[in-house]
Design a protein that fits this description.
By secondary structure, the protein is mostly helical. It has one domain: Ribonucleotide Reductase, subunit A, CATH 1.10.620.20. The chain is globular. Helices cover 70% and strands 0% of the residues.
C-alpha cells in the first residue's frame, strides 16, 4: 500500500539513505487525528485484538533481555536484538497503545497492562528458551511468522485507514525480523547441521505454545478490565476466545505462513510443494477450532 504522506505541518519522513534503503518509520508518520473513530469504535473483536497486541509488544524488552543473554557468545545476533529488534518492537507497542487510547479512551490501558505484565514477566525466563541456540532461532521464526501474518490479517480486516497504515508498517517490520532470525539460524546451523527431526521438534513445540502463551495471558487481562467497565455486555472469556480464534483464523494467510514455517527444514522443492497444501488445510482447522 502507499506510504502515508504526513500533512504539511508535520515534518516529512527522512530522506532515503545513500544506499537507497528506506528509513524506518517513526511514530511521527502516524497521524492519529485522522482516525475515523466512528468506523472502528464499535468493533469489539478488533478492540480485543489490538489491545492484546499492544500489551505483548510493550512487554518485549523483558523478553529481549533473555534473548540477548542467550546469545552472548554471538555478538552479531545479540547486538541486532538489542539495538534494532527491541526498539522496533517497543515502537509497535507505543503506536498500538496510542491508537487504542485514541479510539477507546474509557479503557484503562495502563492498569490493564500492569496486571498483564505482572503475570507475563514471571514467565519470561531464559529457561523457557530452547537450549540449543540454533533451535531457538527456529522458534523465533515461528513467532515472527505468527506476528507477520497476524498484522497482515488485521490490516485486511480493517476499514479504518490509519489502522490499515499502522498494521502494514508493523507487518513489514515483522517480515524483516523473520528474515533476520532465519539468516542467523542458517549461519549457526551451517556448523551444527541439525537434523530435520530436531528442527521439526522445535517448530512443533513453539506452534503448540502459540495459543496458550503470551497472547492468551494478554487477552484474558483485556477481557477482565473490559468486563469491569460500566455498560459493557457480560460475555464469558471462553466464548470471546472461540470467536476471536475463528474470526482471525478464517482470514489468516495460512499458505504464506506455512511457506515461512517450512523454510528452516530446507526440504527438497518437490517435497515442500507436495506437503504445503495439506499443511495449510490442517493449520487452518487448528486455528479455527
Amino acid at each position: 500500500m502507499d506510504r502515508f504522506t504526513p500533512p504539511t505541518l508535520t515534518p516529512p519522513p527522512p530522506l532515503r539513505h545513500a544506499t537507497g534503503k528506506s528509513p524506518h518509520w517513526t511514530l511521527d508518520w502516524i497521524d492519529y487525528s485522522r482516525i475515523q473513530i466512528d468506523v472502528i469504535h464499535d468493533k469489539v473483536d478488533l478492540f480485543y485484538l489490538l489491545v492484546s497486541a499492544s500489551f505483548i509488544e510493550s512487554g518485549s524488552d523483558t523478553y529481549t533481555r533473555n534473548l540477548v543473554e542467550h546469545y552472548d557468545a554471538h555478538p552479531q545476533i545479540s547486538d541486532w536484538l538489542q539495538h534494532q529488534w527491541e526498539p522496533e518492537e517497543l515502537q509497535h507497542g507505543r503506536a498500538l497503545k496510542t491508537y487504542v487510547q485514541t479510539v477507546w479512551p474509557d479503557f484503562d490501558w495502563d492498569a490493564a497492562y500492569a496486571a498483564f505484565f505482572d503475570e507475563y514477566s514471571r514467565l519470561c525466563t531464559v529457561e523457557e528458551l530452547e537450549d540449543d541456540r540454533a533451535l531457538e532461532l527456529v522458534a523465533r521464526c515461528v513467532v515472527e511468522t505468527g506476528t507477520a501474518t497476524y498484522y497482515q490479517t488485521l490490516r485486511d480486516l480493517s476499514a479504518e485507514p490509519v489502522l490499515a497504515e499502522l498494521t502494514e508498517h508493523i507487518r513489514t517490520d515483522e517480515v524483516q525480523h523473520y528474515k533476520h532470525f532465519y539468516r542467523y539460524f542458517k549461519e549457526l546451523n551451517a556448523e551444527r547441521k541439525l537434523s530435520r527431526a530436531r528442527i521439526l521438534g522445535a517448530l512443533r513445540r513453539r506452534l503448540l505454545e502459540l495459543r496458550t502463551s503470551d497472547s492468551d495471558i494478554a487477552l484474558r487481562h483485556v477481557w477482565a478490565f473490559r468486563q469491569a467497565m460500566p455498560g459493557v455486555d457480560q460475555e464469558p472469556f471462553e466464548r470471546v476466545c472461540q470467536r476471536l480464534y475463528q474470526y482471525v483464523g478464517a482470514q489468516l494467510p495460512m499458505d504464506q505462513a506455512v511457506k515461512m514455517l517450512l523454510k528452516p527444514l530446507a526440504l527438497p522443492h518437490r517435497m515442500e510443494h507436495f506437503i504445503e497444501r495439506p499443511l495449510t488445510h490442517l493449520a487452518r482447522r487448528v486455528m479455527t477450532a
